[in-house]
Write a structure and sequence with these properties.
The structure is a single chain. The chain is of the alpha/beta class. The protein has a domain at 2-166: Rossmann fold, CATH 3.40.50. The chain has 9 helices and 6 strands. A 6-stranded mixed beta sheet has the order 3-2-1-4-5-6.
Length: 255
């Protein structure tokens, strides 16, 4: 299960890298609730990686200080550890003279398009829900029962990617200007006359050789008759003639 989750997270991060130009080290913007959960689940070393650059705003730090003042003894210890952990991260300047709520502060820092390519790490559901519906290309991370969860792409992000793909295949404004200039130049030029192509002519009949007469096939020679058979046939004919003449003479004698 853990391997499948890791593979799906890698594919999801690759989509952000491909479409929104995210680069390492990834800038992870952390709110006060996520800092407390890191201490609660004893996972403070999770963000100590070269591929991740943890950041926190001044307003979120003020929220941690206020929570420490209002907390009881057990919670106060946890929040003080979260403050000590947050001091190790880079401080993202939000330029708010008066501290705002973490939701309002992070909305202004991230902006409507997430221009600086932040990854948001927050455990507050209202904060995640508000930014997920509005900002495209914003990866959101939160803890669920000591398991780090990377939320799937929002509908806003998927629609933004679809429009980007359509715009890539469409003609840009500069290309339209070039096409308009080409059409104007072609219209100003005079029409060119079509070039006549030389076609092959028929050959001179006097220079063509006459077809030769085909040779007639020789007649087949009849097979030669043997002399023996011809001699037998002639002898038989003579005998028949002799018999006929003898019978005629005998009839004359009787008369």
């Amino acid at each position: 299960m853990r391997q499948k989750r890791a593979k799906s997270y890698k594919r999801l991060v690759h989509q952000y890298v491909l479409h929104f130009q995210f680069r390492e080290p990834f800038q992870v913007l952390i709110d006060n609730s996520f800092a407390e959960s890191l201490v609660q689940y004893k996972l403070g070393n999770v963000l100590c990686v070269d591929k991740v650059k943890p950041m926190i705003t001044q307003c979120c730090m003020v929220a941690l200080y206020n929570a420490e003042k209002e907390a009881e003894s057990e919670d106060k210890m946890r929040i003080s550890q979260a403050i000590a952990l947050a001091k190790q991260w880079e401080r993202r300047k939000c330029n708010h003279r008066e501290p705002l709520a973490p939701l309002a502060c992070l909305e202004q820092v991230i902006g409507p398009t997430n221009k600086h390519r932040y990854m948001l790490a927050a455990n507050e559901p209202p904060l995640r829900r508000a930014l997920r519906r509005v900002v495209p290309g914003l990866p959101i991370v939160h803890y669920s029962q000591s398991v780090l969860v990377l939320e799937p792409m929002s509908d806003v992000t998927e629609r933004y990617i679809a429009t980007m793909e359509v715009n890539k295949s469409a003609i840009s404004s500069t290309e339209r200007k070039l096409l308009a200039q080409d059409t104007e130049a072609e219209a100003s030029q005079p029409a060119l006359q079509p070039v006549k192509r030389k076609r092959p002519k028929a050959p001179n009949p006097l220079s063509v050789k006459k077809p030769k007469n085909e040779k007639k096939a020789p007649k087949r020679a009849e097979p030669p008759t043997s002399t023996h058979t011809t001699a037998q046939q002639t002898s038989r004919r003579r005998k028949k003639r002799g018999r006929g003449s003898g019978a005629v003479e005998a009839s004359h004698d009787t008369d």
